[in-house]
Amino acid sequence: MAAACLAWCGLGWSDGAVSASSPAYRIVDLGQVQPAFINDAGAITGTTDGGRVFLYTNRLHVFKDPRGTWFEVDGTGINDGDAIAATGQNATGDLASTSYLLTGTPAQPRWTALPTVPHNQGTAVSGIASNGDIAGLSTDSGGSTLRGLVWTRGSEGRPRAPRLLPLPSGYRYSDTRSIVAGPGSIVIAGDVTSHADWTVPFAAVWRLHGRRPLVLSAAKAGARDSYADAIAHGPGSLVYIAASSDAANAPTTFGLIWKLSCPAAKPCRQLAQPAVLRSDAFQNAYINGINGNGWAVGDYDYYNSPAAFVWHNGKTVDIEALRPPHSGWVLYDAEAINDRGQIVGLGTHDDKVSEGYLLTPTGSH
């Protein structure tokens, strides 16, 4: 792929993120899986190509369907205690689904079905925080109204009944994408949709004990809308929000990264306009993950072919530049990055079928 070209051919990408002093990376083949998240210990969860939750530590563990009749069970998040948030779905793909907390060991897994919202059709989870709180969404009995929610961890470690997240005035729907234990309170990232136009979402941030979410501004970046896809807790009260946005005046999608201040017992506030990731060299860019150091990963369209990137402080590089040379891999997707700089995503190895990969720096950033 065109890693060298992206760095040197004047396509609007900077090679400053990779240099002779950058750490070398080693790559691990995860097999036919779709990684979703990696915790700071390097444990990975996601979904196998056969539709089952997996855990990868030093080897791959695949979990059986907890109900025995689900068409697919997706692992969406894992915290540093290796607790996994998962959702069971039926074959029709609708939202008549059930959410789970998966704990224990691969040999003795414990599936806990999360409590549901009365009179609603189903729930789906989006992530799990280090303290065990879980973010997700619920749909009403008609399947037409989505609301973000959170399950907090009870005194015995079992999830409490879900709490619907409040909507700002004038907004109709909400969704959650990620959750993190911030300073003094849980912080949840997602989006909200207004009554005026339910097709246009805006990225939003909730504090667990806050009354209303903070709707993030990106109008000066030329954004028509925004979808918050990932959240990470940085040093002190700093919180990073990564999002994708459709341009207001062109059929393109680009990445956005906000820095927020979320001090204990106070509302979050946006520190500045978001950093923007876009270039005339490609049509669309999507940010999928971000870590507590402000490093983001995602994928973009490059001459009608998918490719993956790493971004930091305005410097972006094709992820192909990080893989070991002559490895036989083509890396076209990056889903998540942890604070150690480990990256998970999808690629092909020796022109075979799509497989999951783990990139690990052999040095330190």
Structure report:
- The protein is mostly beta strands.
- It has one domain (3-361): Methylamine Dehydrogenase, Chain H.
- 2% of the residues lie in helices and 50% in strands.
- The protein has one helix and 29 strands.
- Strands 18, 19, 20, 21 and 22 form a five-stranded antiparallel β-sheet that branches. Strands 1-29-28-27 form a four-stranded antiparallel β-sheet, with no helix packed on it. A four-stranded antiparallel β-sheet has the order 2-3-4-5, with no helix packed on it.
- The chain is globular, with a radius of gyration of 20 Å.
Largest sheet: 5 strands, antiparallel
Measured as a percent range, the helix fraction is under 10%
Tally of DSSP β-strands = 29
The average pLDDT score comes to 86
| CATH domain fold name | Methylamine Dehydrogenase, Chain H
Shape: globular
Number of domains: 1
Structural class by helix and strand composition: mainly beta
- What is the top-level CATH class? Mainly Beta
List the total number of helices. 1
Strand content: over 45%
- Mind telling me the CATH superfamily name? Prolyl oligopeptidase, N-terminal domain
Query: What is the H/E order?
Result: HEEEEEEEEEEEEEEEEEEEEEEEEEEEEE
Distance between the termini: 25 Å
Task: Tell me which CATH architecture applies here.
Answer: 7 Propeller
Contiguous low-pLDDT stretches (5 residues minimum) are: 1-21
From the alpha carbons, calculate the radius of gyration and give it in angstroms.
20 Å
